[in-house]
Design brief:
single chain; 5 helices; 116 residues; alpha/beta; 3-stranded parallel β-sheet; elongated; 3 strands; 47% helix
Length: 116
């Protein structure tokens, strides 16, 4: 993300525009669990996609993070969000694959958002 942001800065400057005049945003899926069992339960939304159905939890987490996605414990998700911020992202919108998982949203609201 940092490399692409720097490339965009160069293109904007070459076009006579100020790089800070362009907001950098990201839309990503998010899966957050306090324990491995919670994380696995929340991955059920992602497991609906055929190629991910039979992956181990660790393999699926790696796939989602590479997509990119925000996946892990609250501390890991906070770290991932801060890394995007350091790369120039000013706003992240999150995709929630399991709309009936109110407890998962509460984990985000109480254990992630207050630290950002």
């Amino acid at each position: 993300m940092r490399e692409r942001s720097e490339l965009l800065d160069g293109l904007l400057q070459a076009a006579g525009r100020r790089p800070e005049g362009v907001r950098r945003t990201l839309n990503v899926p998010i899966v957050c669990g306090r324990t491995e069992a919670e994380l696995e339960a929340r991955l059920r939304g992602a497991r609906r996609f055929g190629g991910w159905r039979d992956l181990s939890t660790a393999e699926l987490v790696a796939q989602l993070r590479g997509w990119p996605g925000l996946v892990g414990t609250p501390e890991e998700v906070i770290e991932q969000i801060r890394a995007y911020e350091a790369a120039g992202i000013s706003e992240i919108t999150m995709q929630w694959a399991t709309p009936d998982d109110v407890e998962g949203l509460e984990v985000l609201a109480t254990e992630v958002l207050p630290h950002l």
